TrEMBL record, chains A, B:
Residues 345-374 are annotated as: Disordered. Keywords: DNA-binding, Transcription, Transcription regulation. This is LacI family transcriptional regulator. It comes from Bifidobacterium xylocopae. It holds the Pfam family Peripla_BP_3. It comes from the Bacteria. Residues 31-85 form the HTH lacI-type domain. Gene3D superfamilies: 3.40.50.2300, lambda repressor-like DNA-binding domains. One of its GO terms (molecular function) is DNA-binding transcription factor activity. Residues 345-355 have a biased composition (Basic and acidic residues).
Amino acid sequence: MIRCSGLFRPDHRLWRPGGERTGKVGRMVRVTLHEVAVEAGVSDSTVSRALRGLDKVDEGTRARVRQAADRLHFSFSRNASSLASGKTMRISLLFSDKLNTWFDASVLQGAYEVLYPQRYDLIPSTVSTYEQLSAFFSRLPADRNVDAVIVASINLGSGETDILKRLTIPTVGLDSRTIEGFDASVLLDDRKGMHDAVALLKRLGHRRMAYVGMPEPGDFEFSSQRRGDAFMESALAMGFQPRDLLRIDVGRRADYRTYDEAVGSGVARVLALDPMPTALCVESDGYAIALIGGLRKYGIRVPQDMSVVGFDDADVAAAADLTTVHQNPEEMARSAADKALALMRGEEPEERHSLADPILMLRGSTARPPQRAR
Amino acid sequence: MIRCSGLFRPDHRLWRPGGERTGKVGRMVRVTLHEVAVEAGVSDSTVSRALRGLDKVDEGTRARVRQAADRLHFSFSRNASSLASGKTMRISLLFSDKLNTWFDASVLQGAYEVLYPQRYDLIPSTVSTYEQLSAFFSRLPADRNVDAVIVASINLGSGETDILKRLTIPTVGLDSRTIEGFDASVLLDDRKGMHDAVALLKRLGHRRMAYVGMPEPGDFEFSSQRRGDAFMESALAMGFQPRDLLRIDVGRRADYRTYDEAVGSGVARVLALDPMPTALCVESDGYAIALIGGLRKYGIRVPQDMSVVGFDDADVAAAADLTTVHQNPEEMARSAADKALALMRGEEPEERHSLADPILMLRGSTARPPQRAR
DNA sequence: TTGTACGCGTTATCAT
DNA sequence: ATGATAACGCGTACAA
């Protein structure tokens, strides 16, 4: 970083409550509803009603009040409103991973799209260990600080579930393991996605396949387990022989010093299989792409020698031309936000608990197995 | 003054959809500082001091208060605290694009990392037109609702700049066009990045190159312009001939019905060049990758026939093995947040305005030009 | 070290 | 339709 000289502004940021409003920057400082009332020549209550668009306000007065407010650049103090009304107009979004992961960022965007127009602010938080989760929840009489909580991708323990049940604000689960404790939820139908992937591979002629799982960081991941189970069940149901179904668990990322090592481990595990499978279902796109890179280094061509199917359809999947199971976290988040909105209004959501359908995206990482293996 | 906390609970605060929740709804509802005081047998102010860790509190008392607070599951009402103290403990983050773009999501994460430990909440917002921007700013006596504003990737007009200057809360620009109006800023040195890219291509032996730009959605994008200019300047300074430097502006995404069409347009423009350049510098990774796909369909091999350099080094770049100019928005956001923190404390940031250095990432999309073109 | 009392900017109730 | 006035829950000079 290079140093630049900055323009220095002496004044501001030194505001003391109950203290002097040391003039400084001129006005523009903290216009209150009361000042608008004075300016418009009406009472505080009238200003409040007029500006909030309540009825029982003469349209003439309302106009005058609006003008006065504009003139003074008035805007409500959310804090004061919240304190008085009991509604915070804020919603907490809890994640288990970094906010810039594909999934979490999409959820944020989706929720934002429906909540912002309703004038709700979104407050994202993350927890990555059960300890943090527990801390978050124990302080969660967030009753007082937010109007609803949306919990994304977090596998709650019974302690948290209990707290959830007692909360007086609506709670919505997103991609959670169970719907237990939530007032509403949106889950992905992992099983269906995996079923479709396996069905594709079978149709292509594959006889021997493996599932490769590597949980992402965090204590709460469980989709690996779920997807692996779905893989086995689907394949068995379709007539695959147990001896032709392999399951490789690479471990967690934290078990390795670098991501490359984790990938190398997966590659080694695949190469060690004898005979090698002709197709791989991988838990997530990121690991699938890395795996493909690793296999190619060892002369395994994808898709000629090995078909690979990912899961999620993150942006990288299209870039890497990866066949994968598509899910739409933005849409799921919109749905979750809609449910939260309904619950906050005291209404019944269209559907308390819903299940989103994944879609198989056919791209270049899958093909018929090599001749010798058919 | 008479206190009747707990006696009168306006029921617009009690949320109960579909009637009662199994039993427990009992108390867990709204514990106030006062109740803790009663439980601990001290005054309200003592509780306040004890829980906030101020000195001049007997450690014995503090312990008792803490226990009482835990027992009652007390947590502060941020609204009330804010109202009383004048600090909101919230920071506004303004973006010009969807929150789930690589850049914006990374900024969010970076800012979160430094602000959350300091107990600040992050409030993300987006604006995509000047109208929205103007609305955001006109209501921005957000003085009252947040303690600082971080503005990311937004090209402010003079109107907004003026408002910025009058704001009484710290404002930090991130990836903005100028530092005008901001108390502090973090910018990327686009010029250096583009210079390095051009230098690489020259060293590889390229003689004829093109810059391809396509602004992302939104009214505020200007990096395209900036990067294109830097491309031309760098190349000319390195001795390239003007006739060997092409500049292709594909237009904005909104000009096309689909992204594929926009990509097709770029491909056509490149193919139409005669003689074709042997190297392309593309404004962003996403478009670079798409372009490569399009060119390959027309038999142009990358990198054998055409070298391509992207910009940003988003996740997709590594997956697509794209040579690109790396920038680190997470780190930039951390820096911006640090500055905001210092300004809010009334301190002078280490550096008011800083410039981040991009790094050229050498990957598989660049090579020497074909024989015939050397 | 601890307690008292008032203020922060709105909303909501009850008069008028 | 409009105006007083009491909460809302906490911070903080100032008194004890």
